[in-house]
Request: fold
Amino acid sequence: MALQTKHKIFIAIAVIVAMLAIAAALFFMLKAQKQDEQMQTLTEMMDIEKQRLEKEYSDYVYEFQDITPTIKNDSLIKLVDEQKMKIQQLLTELKITKSTDARRIQELQTELASVRKIMQYYIAQIDSLNIINQRLTNENIEVKQRYQEAAQTVEQLAKEKEDLTQTVTRAAIIEMTSFNFTALNDKGRSTKKLTQIAKFQFNYTIAKNVTAKAGDKTIFLRIVRPDDIVLTKNANANVFSFEGKMISFSARKDFEYSNEAINDVIYYNVDEMLPSGKYRAEFFLDGNRIGSYSFEI
Reply:
């Protein structure tokens, strides 16, 4: 009886041990399953975090690209380029880092925060420089506008001075107010016969002009034939300057001008064959043509 009882006890113990073993196995299986689930959840979270970091890095790369064209400072451009290269390297490393490498992802996240601070500093510097550049640009535009206004004022004053000078110059030009032509024969009498003409007589009046320069003057006479040939005794010697050219004259007369009107006469001795037709008498004084008159022979 005792042996049978011991056998039953042994069986009961064996059953209990087996149940405990099964329970322990189930416990560890459930724990391992829970750990796998937790690991999967953690992996998914790290993958999401990794994607977020990749997007932030990529956004910073594009943001730097948008900022670079606005930078005018060479030193700052160099610093920004170095930071862009660093971001690109970190982004490349992040893409090849496994989602399960939580420590490295955390390190990259910390470096991203550091890059963000540096970038904010650079943006502040860029904004400050842009404000300064804009102010300088505005000041430069204002200076240019003032210069242009001053130049226009000077130009206007110069034009007014030139106009005034021209007005004074025109006012100072001595004018001829009357003219009369007479053909004379060799006895000094008036004649209308072409073959008897020995001398041309030109009577004229020089007007009063108080603004003109007084003093010794020379009046030049050019007699132009109907065929536009100038009557002259010496085409090479009898010349004077007019508008930058040396032109021939037929007769000249020196006189003294005291700003008062002068009635005078000038002669031309005819010793050449004259064609009939319309002639022209032109008078020059002080480099100006002061009279031009036509007469018939």
Q: What stands out?
A: Helices lie at 2-67, 74-96, 102-171. The mean pLDDT is 78. The beta strands are 176-184, 199-206, 215-224, 230-231, 239-242, 245-248, 251-257, 262-269, 278-285, 288-296.
